[in-house]
């Protein structure tokens, strides 16, 4: 009797049942899921699992289980006195036990999924603890001037604060345009729902912000203020226009960042321009968001705080 996979091309088998050979997590997950579906229909699944567990294979999907899932299944069997040690007799006993308890495969898959979620939660907690005050500190950058960076910072701060989170915006540009804008808003009687401070005040108060968000409006291009913003942040948002010159400059800048980053196209009021920019970013494999919020539209949605902030 042959397995379901026997009719597939050997190269397809190699990738589908050995997805860990691919350096692409998304494709690994897709191939693993496909292999599990085929294995669930396979008439020799029990024998395949017995062979893989007995040989202690450390990679690939066999019988619908990854190596960690197979370890869970082996523990289930051992608890009932069945030890799959690779010998012919033990392999036969394991196949007989598994044929009597086919639900054990799904149970092993569930246990492994729960364990994986727990590991992810632990890693996330450790990562947040290691980041400390940087965990909610986001640096907004732009390779060229006039990309809409500062407007994007203001819109993001407004959206976050509307959800009840404390937000602090840091004006790291030497000219202090954003701080001047916030001061003018206060003088005109407008109360912003977020704090705006300069770089000096930010350095004196430290990176933490009482569990809230800190948005760093860095100067455009590569300069000392930009480098300092990246040192303080756990995420960088690269704001770009839709024209190819801006996209290329943003792509080049992304290669020099040591933190996670994503591109924001903030001037995509024209749908076709936004789609073209998105296609360019997809082709160059840059994580991105294309926002249909132009400068005028974005600020028109906000209460007018005196003069509008600079385009950044």
Q: Given this structure, which CATH class of the largest domain is correct?
A: Alpha Beta
Q: How much is the average pLDDT?
A: 80
Number of domains: 2
CATH fold topology of the largest domain: Rossmann fold
Helix content, binned percent:
40-55%
Rg, Cα atoms, Å: 27 Å
The SSE order reads HHHHHHEHEHEHEHEHEHEH
What's the story with the biggest beta sheet? 7 strands, parallel
Decide which structural class fits the backbone: alpha/beta
Number of helices: 13
The CATH homologous superfamily name of the largest domain equals P-loop containing nucleotide triphosphate hydrolases
How far the N terminus sits from the C terminus, by CA atoms, comes to 68 Å
Give the CA-based shape: elongated
Task: Give the tally of β-strands.
Answer: 7
Contiguous uncertain segments of 5+ residues: 292-307
Major β-sheet strand ordering: 3-2-4-1-5-6-7
Domain 4Fe-4S Wbl-type: 4-72
Protein name: Transcription regulator WhiB superfamily protein
Pfam families: Whib
InterPro entries: 4FE4S_WBL, P-loop_NTPase
């Amino acid at each position: 009797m042959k397995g379901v996979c026997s009719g597939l091309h050997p190269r397809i088998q190699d990738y589908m049942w050995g997805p860990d050979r691919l350096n692409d997590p998304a494709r690994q997950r897709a191939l693993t899921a496909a292999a599990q579906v085929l294995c669930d229909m396979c008439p020799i699944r029990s024998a395949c699992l017995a062979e893989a567990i007995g040989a202690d294979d450390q990679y690939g999907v066999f019988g619908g289980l990854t190596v960690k899932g197979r370890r869970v299944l082996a523990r289930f069997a051992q608890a009932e006195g069945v030890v799959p040690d690779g010998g012919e007799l033990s392999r036969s006993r394991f196949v007989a036990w598994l044929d009597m308890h086919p639900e054990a495969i799904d149970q092993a898959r569930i246990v492994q999924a729960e364990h994986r979620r727990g590991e992810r939660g632990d890693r996330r907690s450790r990562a947040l603890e290691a980041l400390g005050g940087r965990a909610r500190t986001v640096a907004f950058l732009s390779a060229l001037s006039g990309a809409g960076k500062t407007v994007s910072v203001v819109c993001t701060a407004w959206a976050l604060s509307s959800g009840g989170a404390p937000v602090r915006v840091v004006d790291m540009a030497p000219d202090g345009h954003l701080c001047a804008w916030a001061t003018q808003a206060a003088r005109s009687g407008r109360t912003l729902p977020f704090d705006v401070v300069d770089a000096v005040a930010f350095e004196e108060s430290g990176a933490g912000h009482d569990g809230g968000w800190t948005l760093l409006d860095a100067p455009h291009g590569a300069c000392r203020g930009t480098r300092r913003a990246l040192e303080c942040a756990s995420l960088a948002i690269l704001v770009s226009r839709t024209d190819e010159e801006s996209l290329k400059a943003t792509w080049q800048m992304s290669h020099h960042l040591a933190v996670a980053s994503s591109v924001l196209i903030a001037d995509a009021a024209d749908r076709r321009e936004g789609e073209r920019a998105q296609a360019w970013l997809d082709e160059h494999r840059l994580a991105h968001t294309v926002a249909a919020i132009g400068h005028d539209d974005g600020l028109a949605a906000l209460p007018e705080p005196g003069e509008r902030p600079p385009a950044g």
